[in-house]
Design a protein that fits this description.
single chain; 243 residues; alpha+beta; Alpha-Beta Plaits; OB fold (Dihydrolipoamide Acetyltransferase, E2P); 3 domains; five-stranded antiparallel β-sheet; flat
């Protein structure tokens, strides 16, 4: 091993004198995450001209970093590396820049940045659908009532009637519910879809039984009786009757 394995992250929109320090630190953090093996990857310097963040890899990790970059090229790298790859390209697009990762004169990965295709905005579109989440607020003074739903890390404002709101209020901060109704969506140029409003027409409370327990119950029902094997017709009839 040479001990001189070096990788550069090139950014064409800045020079070392013009890139804001805070933005540089963000690129460096993403670059470190992308390469991985942080204890063996070191910052070398900023090259002249366009910004080139030069890193140096310890001999013990050279092959590991090479393999990680190959996995990134084929889209099967670890999740953290794939997210860092996307984060760098998002920053380049926001900075009206393009970039690349190089080893010597060879470009290993290219970031389209400002040149990546943009999707046209679309909407608003109203369509039927479902929304799963936790009821965290119910209230309003008009005939239509606001219902706020927490779905993962997202919060959604929904609208419904007083009758449905009264029933939903019994489940506030309780088990998750599945709302059925009509959502109003729009798509930004980035391709991200946003839910602006959801009109609730009905709902159901979701079963919180762990999946392992459901499989245990199914396994118990499928177990053959002591007298021998269960007739397949009887088994299907039994499963239908339990639904």
């Amino acid at each position: 091993m040479s001990g001189l394995e070096k990788y550069e992250l090139h950014i064409d929109a800045f020079s070392p004198a013009t890139i804001p320090m805070a933005r540089l630190s963000e690129y460096m953090a993403d670059f470190a995450t992308l390469l991985g093996h942080e204890e063996h990857v070191h910052f070398e310097k900023l090259a002249e001209g366009s910004v080139a963040i030069l890193s140096r890899v310890d001999p013990v990790a050279e092959f590991k970093v090479q393999r990680r970059l190959e996995e990134l090229r084929y889209g099967n790298a670890p999740k953290a590396a794939m997210e860092a790859l996307s984060a760098i390209d998002d920053k380049l697009a926001a900075d009206n820049a393009v970039g690349s990762i190089r080893r010597g004169k060879k470009k290993i990965i290219e970031f389209p940045g400002r040149n990546r295709p943009k999707e046209s905005s679309l909407g608003p579109i109203v369509q039927p659908g479902t929304l799963d989440g936790e009821v965290i607020q119910v209230g309003g003074r008009d005939e239509t009532i606001n219902v706020h739903i927490k779905s993962g890390d997202d919060f959604h404002r929904c609208i419904t009637t007083k009758a449905i709101a009264r029933r939903l209020a019994h489940h506030i901060f309780g088990p998750p519910v599945r709302l059925r109704g009509r959502g109003t969506w729009s798509r930004a140029e980035s391709g991200e879809w946003k839910l602006h409003r959801f009109d609730i027409e009905s709902f159901e409370v979701l079963d919180e039984t762990p999946l392992t327990n459901l499989f245990d119950g199914l396994r118990a029902r499928l177990a053959p009786p002591e007298a021998g094997r269960l007739n397949p017709v009887d088994l299907m009839r039994q499963l239908r009757e339990e639904r």
